[in-house]
Amino acid sequence: MKYMIKLFWVFCALSTLALMSNRSGRGSVAGEALTLAPGEGGRTCSNAGCHGTATPFGTEVSINLLDLAGNVVSNYEPGEDYRVNLTISATGASGYGFMIVCLDENDQAVNNWGSPPDDIRSINLIGRDYLEHTMRLDDNSYNFDWTAPTSGTGDVVFYAAGNAVNGNNSNSGDNANTTAVSFSENVMSSVDDLKRESALIFPNPVKDELHIIPSGNYTIEIMNIHGVIVQKLKSTTNEHMRIDLSTYAQGSYFVRILDNENRQIETKHIVKLD
């Protein structure tokens, strides 16, 4: 009987250590990728045993691509440097973890990460460079340096898994989720396109009404700081558009202008005042 009791406590201790070890990242601990990217084993943080299947935090994972000025972009210029923002939105969580990878349209790795921030590592799994946490993270949002691939690569997709944890050193009560976000290669028709002023946008900052006078027939999108489109409009050349923002919360927004082929022409940052 004493022998069985000892075995029980040894099992409990080993289980606790195994669960706590996942704080340093599933890729490092088990050599397993869990973002649901093509070519992985199809498992997630929830069913791999490292985190539970509960949904106490309503965890959502979002990815945005930023130029070096901090503007959200929807397309990339080949060879240019960007920052990839990963945000884990969860209410009441005490810590976070994640794993992220980038693939091209043929599911080949785009291993173009820069030096990772503190508490983040780059790890090669199944021939791909992933970024993952090295410890339980206090912050829920991180930016990673990334260089766009060469011309002709086409669409790239970032696959990510994010965890929101309660810090009880077990997998109970944790909440994981995944996401996949695609970005197109931006092929501009001429140098003139790059220099063209697509629209007059004023005032900035804005309190109630935003004025936009476009120079062509464009799609105009207004996005919040998380890259979520909150309003989408069609414009005609030299139309004076008046957009009511009086009900919007104060803070930063982005006005993104797309041509008729859905190519991004420019993105402008605006500030909404109360």
Task: Give the key terms.
disordered N terminus; 274 residues; mainly beta; six-stranded mixed sheet; Immunoglobulin-like; 41% strand; 2 domains; four-stranded antiparallel sheet; 17 strands; globular; 11% helix
Quick overview:
This protein is mainly beta and 274 residues long. It has helices at 2-21, 26-30, 191-195, and strands spanning 60-66, 72-73, 75-76, 81-89, 95-104, 120-125, 128-133, 141-147, 156-165, 175-185, 199-202, 209-214, 219-224, 229-234, 241-244, 251-258, 264-272.
Tell me what the structure shows.
The structure is a single chain. The N terminus is likely disordered. The strands form 4 sheets. A 6-stranded mixed sheet has the order 3-10-9-5-7-6. A 4-stranded antiparallel sheet has the order 2-1-4-8, with no helix packed on it. It is 11% helix and 41% strand. It has 274 residues and is mainly β.
Q: Tell the overall outline.
A: globular
**What low-confidence regions span 5 or more consecutive residues with pLDDT below 50?**
1-21, 189-195
Distance between the termini: 70 Å
Strand count: 17
Q: Strand order of the main beta sheet, please? A: 3-10-9-5-7-6
- Helix fraction? 10-25%
Structural class: mainly beta
